[in-house]
Design goal:
Blueprint (H helix, E strand, L loop, with lengths): L1 H11 L3 H8 L7 H14 L14 E6 L6 H15 L3 E6 L7 H10 L4 E5 L11 H8 L4 E4 L10 E4 L1 H14 L5 E5 L5 H13 L8 E3 L4 H13 L4 E4 L2 H13 L9 E6 L12 E4 L2 H16 L8 E4 L2 E3 L11
């Protein structure tokens, strides 16, 4: 008990006597200090006293699929900062291969009595993935917000970048440069944002051949493998579902002795960190991360405050950022 008091007191920056008053439900402690002590208990992994377990923690889970793709740390920074401004403490949960699963993180967050959960790039975007943990959150009335396209019928509010507009911007840019053989490098077939991008491309170009569509895991290596196939089929303009995929396309082109952008043009998606520092600087479609992240926190905070929030999707407009990875199509 003494060790617990000392650790919590140090974490919050108050005396052990103050921590003791909070744990024993005694008066003389401000609401902000009381909440800080309870949050510190949760963060340090201590159980709350029995009489305080009915109160939900001022913690919010922020569940990400990875940190290697720079777009996810960017979202974490915006969302975490917005939560902190509201007096909520973000708990970052990042999946690793062979490590803790998304469902495991949800169980841990429920044990900590979190106030809500924000998911960015989770299993909710994959039609063939398990979704039971989302239903458990809904059954317990835990406030949840999803970032970017989700499968139907989950019943949570969602903030998304408009995939159709993103593809239209990239497609028209490549066409304006004279590219006639345009290919797509997308995520898996059950990935909802990729499915939306493909639907948008087919609406723009109904004659788009299946041979100009490649699917891959979201990584540089995956982009390289997918692009190698499309380059052999004569594709000169690439629209990719992420910036790492686009960097893989650039690498594949160079391995085949082709210049970027003199012979192959590449458009990414996200405009994540350092894409203006690559060689060549990457043309990409920018997600409005700041606006999307703040909107997600506003929706979550409204639910935490007891307001009714409809399970609708807010679509945000992307922006094409033209840099050095796109140029006039090579002459036949």
């Amino acid at each position: 008990m003494t060790r617990r008091l000392a650790q919590v007191a140090k974490k919050v920056g108050v005396s052990e006597a103050t921590v003791s008053r909070v744990l024993n439900g005694k008066p003389g402690v401000s609401d902000s200090t009381r909440q800080a002590v309870l949050s510190a208990l949760d963060v340090l992994g201590y159980e709350r006293p029995t009489q305080l377990r009915g109160e939900r923690a001022r913690l919010v889970g922020l569940v990400l699929p990875e940190l290697q793709n720079p777009i996810f740390p960017a979202f974490a920074e915006v969302i975490g900062g917005a939560l902190a401004q509201l007096g909520l403490t973000p708990v970052l949960c990042t999946q690793t291969k062979g490590g803790v699963s998304e469902a495991d993180y949800v169980e841990l967050l429920l044990q900590q009595q979190v106030s809500g959960v924000v998911f960015a790039g989770g299993l909710y975007a994959q039609a063939d993935a398990p979704h039971e943990h989302y239903r458990e959150l809904a059954d317990r009335n835990i406030p949840v917000v999803l970032v970017n396209a989700a499968i139907e019928h989950l019943g949570f509010p969602c903030v998304s970048c408009d995939d159709a507009v993103a593809v239209e911007q990239a497609w028209r840019h490549l066409v304006s440069l004279g590219h006639e053989r345009i290919g797509l490098v997308l995520g898996p077939a059950d990935h909802m944002p990729s499915a939306r991008k493909l639907a948008a491309a087919r609406a723009l170009a109904p004659e788009l051949p299946d041979a100009h569509i490649a699917r891959s895991m979201f990584s540089i290596e995956g982009g390289h493998a997918a692009a190698a196939r499309l380059i052999d089929r004569g594709v000169t303009g690439f629209i990719c579902a992420s910036d790492p995929l686009a960097l893989g396309v650039v690498r594949a082109a160079r391995r085949k002795g082709l210049g970027v952008p003199s012979q192959v043009s590449v458009v990414g998606y996200d405009d994540s960190a350092l894409m203006n520092c690559t060689e060549p600087p990457l043309t990409t479609v920018r997600q409005p991360i700041e606006s999307m992240g703040r909107a997600a926190v506003e929706l979550l905070n409204a639910q935490i405050g007891g307001s009714s929030v409809t399970a609708e999707e807010l679509l945000f407009e992307p922006e094409l950022v033209v840099r050095g990875s796109t140029a006039q199509a090579p002459r036949s």
